[in-house]
Amino acid sequence: MPYRSQSEDTPEEIDRLLFDRYRAMSGTERVTLACRLTAAMDAAALAGLAARHPDADEQELRLRLFVLKVGDEVARPYLEFLGIKFERNTG
């Protein structure tokens, strides 16, 4: 069976190198990488939220990120339990 790249815009050679490297990583290295990538994505999302909500403080931005990540239906009961006014997440 021919090799199928995981991404259409990545050359096969690079794709193979990347996945070979992932396979060679220890479990700790994989978890560390996943945590770093998650932190980078959160930082980018927070920057976008801050740009869209310039008057929001850090707590509001983090709550908006929480709603963005878990969705309105999951976030609503937690926020209501905490007494935080819930508004539909608009980004």
Write up what this structure looks like.
This protein is mainly α and 91 residues long. It has one domain (12-81). It is built from 4 helices and no strands. The protein has helices at 12-24, 27-52, 58-70, 72-81. Helix 2 packs across helix 3 and helix 3 packs across helix 4.
How far from one another are the termini?
Answer: 43 Å
Shape: elongated
User: What is the number of E strands?
Assistant: 0
Any low-confidence stretches, pLDDT <50, length ≥5?
none
Describe the sheet with the most strands. Answer: none
Indicate the multimeric state.
Answer: single chain
Helical content (DSSP H or I, runs of 4+): 55-70%
Class of secondary structure makeup: mainly alpha
Strand content: under 5%
Mean pLDDT: 91
What labels describe this entry?
mainly alpha, 91 residues
Which helices and strands occur, and which strands form pairs?
Layout: H1 12-24, H2 27-52, H3 58-70, H4 72-81
Helix pairs in contact: 2-3, 3-4
Structure summary:
With 91 residues, the protein is mostly helical.
